[in-house]
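Saturday, quiet lab. Running sequence design on the structure tokens for the scaffold JK sent over.
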């Protein structure tokens, strides 16, 4: 399933918005932001709520790909992110495009079955 569309021009995203974009729970997003603090650094408002930047969202998408799609451990994903940042960005974009194409093909297949 492709990631939910979001507006990268928006300055900040709430944890609920990020969870919806990733298709994961807010507790998992909170856990990843604490575990991968070298890559995801959400700011906090006066109430203490996390506010994620578009760069944080992109990093969380990469973490999601490594942990959920490639089944890497958290330590392995952190090491991969430190060592191969540019390659991961490209791979994540390709995976996201392929997910979108797959969704489109499934929709076409369903419409042809009718």
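Result came back. Writing it out in full:
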């Amino acid at each position: 399933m492709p990631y939910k569309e979001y507006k990268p021009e928006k300055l900040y995203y709430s944890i609920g918005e990020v969870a919806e974009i990733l298709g994961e729970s807010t507790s998992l997003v909170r856990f990843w932001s604490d575990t991968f603090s070298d890559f995801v650094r959400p700011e906090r408002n006066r109430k203490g709520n996390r506010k994620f930047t578009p760069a944080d969202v992109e990093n969380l998408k990469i973490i999601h790909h490594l942990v959920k799609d490639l089944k890497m451990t958290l330590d392995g994903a952190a090491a991969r992110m430190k060592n191969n940042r540019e390659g991961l960005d490209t791979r994540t974009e390709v995976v996201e495009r392929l997910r979108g194409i797959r969704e489109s093909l499934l929709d076409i297949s369903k419409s042809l079955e009718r």
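Notes for JK: DSSP finds five helices and three strands in the chain. The chain has one domain: 13-113. Ask whether to fix the surface positions before the next round.
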